[in-house]
Amino acid sequence: MSWVLFGLPLLLLALGFPVFIALLAAAAVTLTFFMNVPGVAVHRALFGSMDTYALLAVPFYLFAGELMARGSMSRRLVDWAMSLMGGMRGGLGLVTLSGSTFFGAISGSSVATVAAIGRLVQAPLEAQGYDQRFGPALVAASAAVALLIPPSIALILYGIAAQQSITRLFAAGILPGLLMSVVLGVYIYIMARVKGLKAVRPFEGRAFVRASGQSSLALGMPIIILGGIYFGVFSPTEAAGVACVYALVVSCGIYRDVSLRAAWDTAVQSMYLTSQILIIVAAAGVFSWVMTTNGVPRMLAGGIANLDITTWQLLIVINLLLLVVGCFIDTPSAILLLTPLLLPIVQAVGVDPIHFGIIMTMNLSIGLFTPPFGLNLFVTQALMRPRPSDLYLGVMPFVAVSVLALLIVTFIPSISLALLPYLY
Amino acid sequence: MGVTRDFTLKGVWFLNRVLDWVTWPIMQLCELVLGSLLFAAVAINVANVVGRYVLGSSLGWAEEVLTYSMIWGVFIGGILVTLKNDHLCVDLLAQYLPPLGRRLLDILILLGLIGCCVYVARQSEQVLALFSRTGQRSTVAGLPMVWIHGAIMVGFTMMAIAGGLRLLRVAVDSANIALCGQPLLRDHAQRGL
User: Fewest Cβ atoms nearer than 10 Å: which of A152, A168, A387, B141?
Assistant: First the structure.
């Protein structure tokens, strides 16, 4: 039976079958030929995995993020970051990074961040002498931070798959996300010195105040959303709904740079993307139920315990596995496929499930800009048109420094867990 | 020989147009439902928050209705995604195949998709028959469970039909490639977050 549960999905995935079909087929074959359970259990498990209020946050955050990317909110954030950091050596690189971090804090999507910020900084990066190797790689790597900085769709999916509090996961993502930003920022600053890149313009207090005023509505969004969640005003799902209304009012009503027609198209597109992701959630629920019923997670955990492997050795192995998986499989599929398998194993050696969610998301965020199949690389390539070889070579140092941040977060759990006691 | 080839080519183009006429209204209807569902869900969600803090009473049925409408939205979106052949997958193998080989692989994948969808729809039918007999309703909103759980049967049945339409399109495309070496369809483009 184990060859069906492990081999069949891998074979179907390799052939290019949709992820949800690979999971459903494995579950259906196991149920029909190896288990004495009626097939109607498939319906129950499918429905049960979708019958979760928290999942509604996925279309809401996708909608809010896409809406802000279409309007001028992303440009205002970049202008604000420029007024703050443009005076530093390599300031434009740091502006790209901080713009991506802030945009990630309001959109929850890494690809939306590449598209929104990359579009804005492309011409200034070229004008400032950022070469074809450094500039596009900088955009692709910076946007990956969005996966960790709350609100994060990846963390919502992990919360559903691992049955963990999404509010706690959001709080746990803040410090690792900021650490990754700082590590990338230090690398950008060093490279700017090595390459002799100049500051964009000297810092001016008046320009900063003006830019802050112009971007106050965009900057206010993470404060309202995350503040509302952490102070217990609303749940993460309600916060996502508030984010949609906020983005609609600001983009269509106040800034007037998104038409109602464009808002409608964005709504349809968000639901379309939601279907692509949540149909895998449904199928993963069936697959996970079949595995649990057959005692697979317990067997895996027992097998690892018998290997007499230390916690840090196990975490290194899992980090390597996740880094490789992140290069080939999209983030939602990877989280939904691997969480039910890996979580019991790490819990057996005493790793906190919230901490593990951050480790997993951080690995997959690095996978987003790791050659050859990182999704951010494809978006950057479509947007900025660098030669693939330049982009791949340029991005490797970013991968190396991000792995350094990953190791720090992996082996110092308090970075992920430090803010949890302060939740309302 | 040339006349027969031209005639067959015209037939291929005609079939392709017929498939456009059949799929277009389905796609438009799906888009209308998806957009309306999202706006309605946002409105109910925010009304619930406002009601709790401003009027002192929240909408008790909101969570149930929102969750169930999202389930319907996912499966209706699934029909659209199937028609566009845009489900998330790892399409590495297809990149190394010639156009005709790619279409044959597409046919294999679509047959697998149709088989799986029919299997789930048949299991779902039995659950719906049970709900229909018992007349069970949801706890808070009092909605008939047969309507709610119907999303899975309707979704998977329609996805099987959408897969069938896509299969016809791929077959027509394969004929076009065999005749003039040019595909009519764009290749699957992987999307994600």
Answer: A387
pTM exceeds 0.80, yes or no? yes
Tokens 């406002």 belong to B50
Q: What is the DSSP string of A226-237?
A: HHHHHTTSS-HH
Model pLDDT, residue B39: 97
Mapped onto helix, strand or coil, the DSSP state of residue B144 is strand
The three-state secondary structure class of A18 is: strand
With beta carbons under 8 A apart, name residues in chain B contacting A289: none
What's the rounded mean pLDDT across residues B17-42?
94
Per-residue confidence at A275, pLDDT binned at 50, 70, 90? very high
| pLDDT, tens digit (0-9, with 9 covering 90-100), for B71-116 | 999 999 999 999 998 888 877 788 788 888 888 899 999 999 999 9
Between CA A52 and CA B70 the distance in angstroms is 10
Band (pLDDT 50/70/90 cuts) for residue B193 is very low
Q: Are B160 and A297 in contact (CB under 8 A)?
A: no
A73 φ, ψ to 5°?
-60, -40
- Work out the end-to-end distance of chain A between its first and last CA atoms, rounded to an integer number of angstroms: 46
Give the DSSP H or E segment for A374: none
* pLDDT above 90: residue A109: no
B 169-188 residues inside an 8 A Cβ radius of A: none
Asked if the Cβ–Cβ distance from B124 to A43 is below 8 Å, we say yes
- What is the rounded CA–CA span in Å between residue A392 and residue A388? 6
Contacts with A280 from chain B: Cβ below 8 Å: 88
Q: Can you tell me the mean pLDDT for A272-297?
A: 87
Q: What does A99-144 look like in DSSP terms, one character per residue?
A: HHHHHHHHH--HHHHHHHHHHHHHHHHHHTT--TTHHHHHHHHHHG
DSSP helix, strand, coil percent of chain B (3-state; round to 5): 80, 0, 20
Q: Does A53 touch chain B (CB under 8 A)?
A: yes
Say if residues A294 and A5 touch (Cβ distance below 8 Å): yes
What CA–CA distances, in Å, run from B5 to B1, B101, B157, B180? 6, 22, 37, 9
Instruction: Compute the 3-state secondary structure of chain A and give helix, strand, coil in percent, each to the nearest 5.
Output: 80, 0, 20
Is residue A413 within 8 A of residue A355, CB to CB? The reply is: yes
Cβ <8 Å between B48 and A238: yes
- The pLDDT value given to residue B184: 67
Write the single-letter amino acid at B95.
Q
